[in-house]
Amino acid sequence: MNPERGKGWIHFLLVLLVLSWGAAYPIVKFLLRWLSPLELVLARFWIFMPLLAFMLWHWRRSILVQIRMHPWRSLALALLGVPGYHIMLNLGTQALMADPESTGSAAMMSSILVGSVPAWTALFARIAGQENLSKLQWLGQAFCMAGVVALATRGDLSSMHLSIGALLVLGAPLSWGLYSVVAKRVFDSAGSSLPITVFILAAGTVITSLFTPPPIFSHLAEMPMKAWLALAFIGLISTLAGYLIWSVAVRRLGANRPSVYIYFIPVASLAMSALTLGERLGPSTALGGVMILTGVFLIRRHSR
């Protein structure tokens, strides 16, 4: 029997998720005109807090049951899924931009490192005894990573070098890989993964706020309406809906299979940037896209 049968709707939601996460990159560039990186992290979470508060109250009994069953794992997920990923990514990117040797390659290095999420997820899932990949699937992972490098560097590797900023950014994919694997354990014991995910978002947002130095949101009043609409999109769609879709996918498909879709985010991001910001696409873009498609084919074709 095909294990994917009846799960096509989950893959469809993952495609929509990739499109929303890909669209988030040019939107983030736009919003950074008014907000600092850490302010933007908080703003995209706090904008849906009223809705999140309602969901917390609605699912309060289910959330309490899950927290009692997995107190330390629930706390770990709140730390890994929000501050662990977003703060490390933003601090690392800031450090790269402040480094004279990395300024021109900050976005490139961040894209490559964040694109390594599926590989780290596969490694952690194997260590945890959840899933194992065949040799051809690992080859597919290598093809995908090479495609991400081709897309991020546009074929020029000369400006890349290892730095403290790069190591900080690396904390983001490590956090998300661990988050997905730990979440699978917690979600498997729940009737639904949505209530505990709502708790993770709420607790993670509060913890992230504690790491953000004042003053915060000092320029919100200067933002035009189109910036508020952009913030609402990445808050409600890319973030809130994104985390909820991810939780359903991890519970139903495991940690590995949903993570493979992350390889398509650079493709979606470049396409959105070309459409909205007028960025040019070159031969390396086509090469990277083909390599990612080849890698995903190998991973899915030889899944067990």
Question: In terms of topology, how is this protein built?
Answer:
Elements: H1 8-31, H2 37-46, H3 49-58, H4 60-69, H5 71-98, H6 106-114, H7 117-127, H8 135-153, H9 164-188, H10 194-210, H11 225-253, H12 256-260, H13 265-276, H14 283-301
Mean pLDDT, all residues = 80
- Largest sheet geometry: none
Shape: globular
The helix/strand order is: HHHHHHHHHHHHHH
Give the total of beta strands: 0
Poorly predicted segments? none
User: Beta fraction of the residues?
Assistant: under 5%
Rg value: 19 Å
Compute the number of structural domains. 1
If helices are DSSP runs of H or I spanning 4 or more residues, what is the number of helices? 14
Q: Termini separation (Å)?
A: 12 Å
> Helix/strand/pairing class, anyone?
mainly alpha
The percent of residues in helical segments reads over 70%
Describe the structure.
α4 crosses α5, α5 packs antiparallel against α9 and α6 (106-114) packs antiparallel against α8. It is built from 14 helices and no strands. Helix content is 75%, strand content 0%. The chain has one domain (8-135, 158-254). It has helices at residues 8-31, 37-46, 49-58, 60-69, 71-98, 106-114, 117-127, 135-153, 164-188, 194-210, 225-253, 256-260, 265-276, 283-301. The longest helix is centred in the C-terminal third of the chain and has 29 residues, at 225-253. The radius of gyration is 19 Å and the shape is globular. The protein is mostly helical and 304 residues long.
